[in-house]
Structures are given as structure tokens and as C-alpha cells.
Amino acid sequence: MRQPHLRREGDERDAMSEELKRKAAEAALEEVTSGMRLGIGTGSTAEQFVRALAEKVREGFSVIGVPTSERTAALCTELGVPLTTLEACPELDLTIDGADELDLQLRLIKGGGGALLREKIVATASLRMIVIADASKKVARLGAFPLPVEVVPFGLGATRNAIARALADLGYDAPILLRGGDTPFVTDGGHHILDIDLREITDADALSRALLDIPGVVDHGLFLGIADVAYLAGANGVERLVPAADEEN
């Protein structure tokens, strides 16, 4: 049984984490203007953004959103954020979403919530992407968070073997785990997710190309050259981060 003091410490950490997510979401909301067509991300940090956005909508703020998952769509509907589809609105002004990891070039690992494919489609249909997260998500090099790879269920074993060979060719010896195990996780698109524990990604571009060359791989959680800005909330406030190469611009 969990000790009372440990429970309190855990609750305090959870509350602090949610507060940081809220601050990052509110900072990003400052870049949203009335009339925008928004891509709205998935996950606990994105949900904080939805709640903050809904408050502004109730005050008369005009936006239309494209959700990246059924979960996000349900929350937006519950809170009164107007929605459309990417079919009806194929060009978006801005996507705001969380990340599982990001580096100083704003390369991301996403997909911990299982919505990486829709998240990437929506983000790349947008003129800009803003990432919101707590400061602990910033890393010197990607890979500590397992890389999700979305795959079709048909031929799963063959696809997994092909991924293992591609990883070996790139010098990785990494476990590849089916999310959900004996009861596989199913994405909104009807796919499965393989999580790859790489520990450290040495060449994200080469890894991206190798994975996308494999039949059966739908997409992966590396978001490269997509994010424009990140708002990272920490103990000392909210940091606005742009890709390292753009710092002088």
C-alpha cells in the first residue's frame, strides 16, 4: 500500500506538472489571433491549451479547430471550441501541440499519446507549429523517450523484422516493443504502434528515411523541420525557444 506521505508527494508533483503545462499553453495562446484556423494537438499538455482556448471562445474569440485525435475532438466539443475537418479546411494557420522530447533544433519525438500520424498531417498542413511542454522535455539529443512507429497490422512480424534490420544497418541495437502487448493499442486510423528504445539518436534524418522506406510503416514520431517555436515552462518561468539555426533571425 502506498504510504500517505509518498501519495502526497506524488500528488504535489502531478499538480506542479499540470501547472507548468498550463503556463506553457497560456503562453502559446498569446500567438493565436481571432479568426485563425487551428490545428489542435493531443495529450495532457494540449488539453491544457484546449481549456485555455475554450475560455477565450466563451468570451467571444473566433477560431475554428482541426483536432488531431478523437480524444481531442471530444474535449473540444465538450468545452465549446468550434471544429471542422482537414477535408473542409485543408490549409491551417497554426498548430499547437505537445511533445515527448525536443532538442535545441526543435526536432521532436511525438506519439506517446498514440496520435502521431494525425498530428503530423495536421502540423504539416499548417503555416506554423508551436510546441508546448514543460522544460523537462528539452534534451541535448533525442532518443531517451522511445520512438513510436505507426504500422499497419497486416504483416506486423515482417514489418518488425524489417525495422530491426534497418536499425542494425544504422548501428542501433534497440528493443522493439508492440504497444499494448497481447492487447495491441489501436490508433484512430486503425494501426498499431511499435515503440523503439533507441536511448540516443545519432542521425535523425537517416533514421527517418530508413523507417519510411519500409513497407508496412505508416509514419514515425520524429518531427523534423516542422516545429517553429516552443514554449517550455519551468521553475523560472516560460522560455520561448526557436530552432538554434534561427536564433540570429
Automatic annotation (TrEMBL):
For the ligand (substrate), the binding residues are T42, G43, S44, T45, D97, G98, A99, D100, K110, G111, G112, G113, K137
Pathway linked to the protein: Carbohydrate degradation; pentose phosphate pathway; D-ribose 5-phosphate from D-ribulose 5-phosphate (non-oxidative stage): step 1/1
* Highest rank taxon of the organism: Bacteria
What positions does UniProt annotate as the active site of this protein?
E119 (proton acceptor)
Alphabetical list of Pfam families matching this protein: Rib_5-P_isom_A
Q: Which GO terms describe its biological process?
A: pentose-phosphate shunt, non-oxidative branch
Q: What is its EC number?
A: 5.3.1.6
Keyword list (alphabetical) reads: Isomerase
Q: Which GO terms describe its molecular function?
A: ribose-5-phosphate isomerase activity
> Which reaction is this enzyme known to catalyze?
aldehydo-D-ribose 5-phosphate = D-ribulose 5-phosphate
Quaternary form? Homodimer.
HAMAP family recorded: Rib_5P_isom_A
Protein purpose: Catalyzes the reversible conversion of ribose-5-phosphate to ribulose 5-phosphate.
Q: Which family does it belong to?
A: Belongs to the ribose 5-phosphate isomerase family.
Question: What protein is this chain from?
Answer: Ribose-5-phosphate isomerase A
* Source species of the chain: Stappia indica
